[in-house]
Amino acid sequence: MDFHLDEEHRMVRDSAREYAERVLAPNAARWDAEERFPEEALAEAAAAGFMGLTVPEEYGGAGMGNLHSAVLLEELNAVDASVGVTLSVHLSLVCAPIAKHGTEEQKREWLPKLAAGEVLGAYSLTEPQAGSDAAAIRCRAERVDGGWKLTGTKAWVTSGTHAGLFVLYAVTDPDAKKGYGITAFLVTPDSEGFAVGKKEEKLGIRASSTTELVLEDVFVPDERVLGTVDQGFKIALETLDGGRIGIASQAVGIHRACLEASLRYSEERVQFGRPIGDFQAIAWKLADMATALDASRLLVHRAAWMRDQGLPCTMECSMAKLFASRACNQAAQDAVQIHGGAGYTKEFPVERFYRDARITEIYEGATDIQRLVVSRNLKKRK
Ligand code: CAA
Q: How far apart are CA 117 and CA 125, in angstroms?
């Protein structure tokens, strides 16, 4: 067993760190304040090869795996969680299922554009009445000549305003038992009847775009069905296993940023004649933050490694997200506390980290859904 990243992983880490410092760090706070989608940062991410990191080489990507992606996403999220989630969704929830379940034509049509960053990907499962209970979606796909007509409303779609391709789930057989009768479709925003609805105003990850989608008789040809008709719910959940590694990596990145900022501040800030880091009350918080960060990263890397090996890892992906997101929120809380009043202002970045951390326990399966997945899998593996 070897706990070191190999040379290729270190290369990804170093180029992601260079990009994050050069492109994201000078702008992240402003983009957050202005709620501005950072198109230029995504163009630079594409130029650096990040948009196609995990896309197979024959379709224009770098052919790397989940562990590379976890390393990339930690670096991006340590500086800008809005860009972090945008990339995470693009890679894990769009490129990955197309590479895995797409037909040869679909792969040839979409993967090179996604890898080059010409097209940004979005994933659309959730609906206003179907969040944690994802199988309860109602967006309806009716059979018509040569394809399907989709009607319904989707919610909480990351990159809704800017995506050129949506992996969108709709009900093809309303009489099927729960979890069946759902199909994955590749939908483009230029389709007649497709509209991007309300853009959410959010507490954190404010430079990412999160929207509703409204579909009214949107025609999707048979060639744009992803995977098998009526079997899309399994694709949705299997895809989310990988997505949860991405969000867990996001939590690791934000957590690390909280620790680094707190270490800095605790050395600079003097009270009672000493840097506050000399006081046990602060030093122990820092020690706990650092220990939990390592535990989170190890869980994330294990889940990513297992997925790269093709091993069953639904439980490990959920464990990583469950633990890393909670640890990240504790770290963000402690970071603000260590900074005191300063941490409550926009002059210090921990205020933004605190707001961004919150979402990691909510999307791609809230904390209690991860517990549900872990507990069900414990029973299955008995
Ligand atoms: N991989 C493949 N198949 C899976 C699976 C997985 N990880 N998990 C379950 N399945 C299979 C099951 O075996 C079952 O099939 P069989 O009946 O043949 O055995 C079928 O899928 C249905 O599974 P469940 O019975 O477990 O389904 P459920 O209705 O009880 O729901 C759930 C399970 C875990 C609660 C699921 O609904 C869930 O994960 N909910 C959370 C939704 C979520 O994460 N949404 C994220 C939205 S995307 C987002 O946030 C992205 C973004 O933009 C940032």
A: 23
Which is it for the CA torsion 373, 370, 317, 4, positive or negative?
negative
**What residue owns the CA closest to ligand 1's atom 53?**
158
Q: Return the pLDDT at 279.
A: 98
pLDDT at residue 382 greater than cutoff 90: no
Burial 54-92 (b: 16+ CB within 10 A, else e): bbbeebbbbbbbbbbbbbbbbbbbbbbbbbbbbbbbbbb
| Å from CA of 132 to ligand 1 middle | 9
Nearest Cα neighbor of 98 from 66, 65, 64, 56 is 56
Tell me what pLDDT residue 181 has: 98
Q: What residue has token string 């994201």?
A: 24
Identify the residue whose C-alpha is closest to ligand 1 atom 36.
134
Query: Is 39 considered catalytic here?
Result: no
Q: Is the pLDDT of residue 2 over 90?
A: no
185/196 Cα distance (integer angstroms): 17
**Residue 250 pLDDT grade (very low, low, confident, very high; cuts 50, 70, 90):** very high
Burial class (CB in 10 A: 0-12, 13-18, 19+), 44: middle
Query: Residue 71 C-alpha to ligand 1 middle, in angstroms?
Result: 26
pLDDT band of 73, cuts 50, 70, 90? very high
CA 71/CA 237 separation, integer angstroms: 23
Q: Ligand 1: which residues within 6 Å by Cβ?
A: 85, 89, 123, 125-126, 132-135, 158, 178-179, 233-234, 237-238, 240-241, 314, 363-365, 369, 372-373
Mutate which of 234, 238, 358 for ligand 1? The one with the most ligand atoms within 8 Å of its CB, which is 234
Backbone angles phi, psi at 100, to 5 degrees: -85, -40
Domains and CATH numbers, the chain: 7-120 (1.10.540.10), 123-232 (2.40.110.10), 236-380 (1.20.140.10)
